[in-house]
């Protein structure tokens, strides 16, 4: 049974999609907006995992993984026309959770982790997760000491160039489309093809609209 938090997220997405489509918002705008919502979800979940040790556990990994499965179902049902690249926007949290729930972490080399498990994550982010992780369900251990030592050496070399919290994702608050995108998304409209609402036809001040249509 999923927690109420995931249910609330899915209900919000359903409500958002219903209102946007009910108001005939072009699919282009819906796609951009939904994609940005999922980008925000990814950032919040991923940063919480790296900042709070209680989130960096095997049990929480299973919990978040189950929630991501529900979000994937929602994205599939929404289809690419409206969901766009939403699933791709969740890649950071998906890969981090995949690391949390995988067994036999100590047998994984750094290259295997970087290339197969967490290709989108930086070494600094992987190091943070590896050193904060603890298995509250089965009592298994994190990556080997050799892998931790490799990552620590790489992180130490970069410390003088990067701030201490550089493992966090930045929230992109920019508008997810340009004026050119808007121009391309909205088809040209000929005013003469649009019928004047009947209630306006009786108003003298609206006669110029009728003349324009003629």
Would you mind describing this structure in some detail?
- The chain has 214 residues and is an all-alpha fold.
- It has one domain.
- 63% of the residues lie in helices and 0% in strands.
- The chain has eleven helices and no strands.
- The chain is elongated and about 85 Å long.
- The protein starts with a helix and ends with a helix.
- It comes from Punica granatum.
- Residues 1-157 form the Dilute domain.
- This is Dilute domain-containing protein.
- InterPro entries: Dilute_dom, Vascular_dev_regulator.
Counted beta strands: 0
Instruction: Estimate the global geometry from the Cα principal axes.
Output: elongated
| Beta-strand residue fraction | under 5%
- Supply the helix-strand structural class: mainly alpha
* Arithmetic mean pLDDT: 88
**Tally of discrete structural domains:** 1
Output the radius of gyration: 24 Å
Uncertain residue ranges:
none
CA distance, first residue to last residue: 63 Å
The total count of helices amounts to: 11
Largest sheet entry: none
The helix-strand sequence is HHHHHHHHHHH
What proportion of the residues is helical, as a percent range? 55-70%
Protein name: Dilute domain-containing protein
InterPro entries: Dilute_dom, Vascular_dev_regulator
Pfam families: DIL
Domain Dilute: 1-157
